[in-house]
């Protein structure tokens, strides 16, 4: 442990990151910027080729940052796992999606662990960063690594440290977002703490890998449940005839005990729609039903169909149906100012509208093309004629680039799921806003008793 500690403190260690996506690439570059040599490993040949040419594929990372990290020799992207033999630290940042049956798919973690086991050597630190269910590090990774004959806490060190990156966030990045670390043994926690303290402002040790895994799931379940609650409140406000945004903003003036969450067309991204299922799945195996998680998933999951209902209501005002209507979607990324469409609710809304016979087009300044149902759609330009020719414009993602005043002025009917039209009262007669007291009749639940 002393040898590794000294190497880490003197920035003499060689670090590695497995999986150079939204999480792994910024992490690798942050470690490199602290003066470590970092090897970045990925299976994706295109990504490695781009990185070698100093090109970024992630919005928050500039070409310049990559090019200079490569030029200084601090960052080496590679497809070759043999480099693991030479490195002192390994951070695992591979995907953790859901399988078709909505169960955790930890095959990427297992594949990476097998590669690490083959190269595992004394005085090496292994850290899992991918979000996963509590118990993954000590129940799956530890036995696999110890099958090498090396012992944890003595020969090598194993910890879990959840990534908290928030793509598109300009205030918080890898460097200034506090980091949780939990090791298998106290020595593992300490080595991981020392490592991350070299390039992250604040590192918080916790007592176990399971605790660290649970911290991440609490954070994301907290968001999922609160978004689910506020989505339901938005539906209540529609029925009551109250503007949910006015209610939330007024409640947010309370200086304690209230955190504002806002309604929207549904959950998206790699984390919030997926991670709580990892927790619920693990608890189910322990005979415990995670009720808040399933209720939030149910409410958040119905928001895309709420949006299509709003579109149907709006068109009805013009004696039109969804079938045959021209509908323009604004924003398909799952949140504003990013290009990430993973799990985006826009995809569900689009699928539902296509199924109902709508003639769809979309614009997203961050997503030039999109493949859907085997077809490739191209983002259309927001020219006046492209907007005026539509029967309905739906705001699904309120990117900063949009000039909503012009867009709304040129639209016939607008369905606003993001409160993007809040300052455009003069157009209120053609706007249907989620949770704004439009009293969308079909959102009311029928009393079956
Ligand atoms: N994206 C986020 O905002 C975010 C935030 C916090 C935590 N996380 C978690 O971090 C993890 C990674 O997420 P991401 O968004 O960076 O995913 P990503 O899909 O952007 O990147 C993962 C990368 O891993 C590579 N990969 C897959 N299997 C591999 C293997 N066996 N060996 C080497 N490389 C491999 C892929 O090619 C890809 O480049 C997930 O568990 C996710 O839940 C993501």
Characterization of the model:
- The mean pLDDT is 95.
- The termini are far apart.
- α14 links the parallel β13 and β14.
- α8 packs parallel to α11.
- Helices cover 38% and strands 14% of the residues.
- With 449 residues, it is an alpha/beta fold.
- The radius of gyration is 24 Å and the shape is elongated.
- It has an eight-stranded mixed beta sheet, sandwiched between helices.
Average pLDDT rating: 95
General shape: elongated
* Rg for CA atoms: 24 Å
Bound ions, cofactors and other small molecules, one mention each: nicotinamide-adenine-dinucleotide
The tally of strands reads 15
Order of helices and strands: HEHEHHEEHEHEEHEHHHHEHEEEHEHEE
The percentage helix is 25-40%
Question: What's the quick description here?
Answer:
With 449 residues, the chain is α/β, with parallel strands linked by helices. It is 38% helix and 14% strand.
């Amino acid at each position: 442990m002393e040898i590794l500690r000294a190497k880490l403190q003197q920035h003499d260690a060689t670090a590695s990151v497995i999986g150079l996506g939204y999480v792994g690439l910024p992490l690798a570059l942050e470690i490199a910027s602290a003066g470590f040599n970092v090897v970045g490993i990925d299976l994706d040949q295109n990504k490695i080729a781009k990185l070698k040419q100093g090109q970024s594929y992630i919005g928050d990372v500039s070409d310049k940052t990559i090019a200079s990290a490569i030029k200084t020799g601090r960052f080496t992207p590679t497809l070759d796992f043999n480099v693991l033999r030479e490195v002192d630290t390994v951070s695992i940042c591979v995907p953790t999606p859901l399988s078709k049956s909505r169960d955790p798919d930890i095959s990427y973690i297992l594949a990476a662990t097998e590669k690490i086991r083959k190269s595992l050597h004394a005085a090496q630190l292994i850290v899992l960063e991918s979000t996963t269910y509590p118990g993954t590090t000590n129940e799956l990774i530890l036995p696999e690594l110890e099958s090498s004959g090396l012992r944890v806490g003595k020969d090598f060190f194993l910890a879990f440290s959840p990534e908290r990156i928030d793509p598109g966030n300009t205030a918080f990045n890898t460097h200034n977002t506090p980091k949780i670390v939990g090791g298998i043994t106290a020595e593992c926690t300490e080595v991981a703490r020392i490592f991350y303290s070299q390039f992250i402002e604040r590192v918080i040790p916790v007592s176990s890998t399971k605790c660290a895994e649970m911290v991440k799931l609490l954070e994301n379940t907290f968001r999922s449940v609160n978004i689910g609650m506020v989505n339901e409140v938005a539906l209540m406000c529609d029925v009551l005839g109250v503007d949910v945004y006015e209610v939330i903003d007024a409640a947010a003036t309370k200086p304690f005990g209230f955190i504002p969450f806002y309604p929207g067309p549904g959950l998206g991204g790699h984390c919030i729609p997926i991670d709580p299922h990892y927790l619920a799945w693990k608890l189910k195996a322990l005979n415990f039903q995670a009720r808040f998680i399933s209720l939030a998933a149910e409410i958040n999951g119905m928001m895309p169909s709420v949006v299509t209902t709003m579109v149907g209501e709006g068109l009805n005002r013009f004696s039109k149906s969804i079938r045959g209507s021209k509908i323009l979607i604004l924003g398909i990324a799952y949140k504003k100012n990013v290009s990430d469409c993973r799990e985006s609710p826009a995809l569900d809304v689009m699928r539902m509208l296509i199924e109902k016979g709508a003639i769809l087009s979309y614009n997203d300044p961050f997503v030039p093309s999109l493949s859907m149902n085997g077809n490739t759609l191209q983002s259309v330009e927001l020219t006046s004629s492209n907007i005026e020719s539509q029967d309905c414009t739906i705001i699904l993602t309120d990117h900063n680039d949009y000039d909503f005043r012009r867009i709304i002025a040129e639209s016939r009917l607008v369905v606003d799921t993001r409160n993007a039209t809040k300052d455009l009262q003069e157009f209120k007669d053609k706007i249907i806003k989620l949770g704004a007291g439009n009293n969308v009749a079909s959102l009311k639940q029928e009393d079956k008793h």
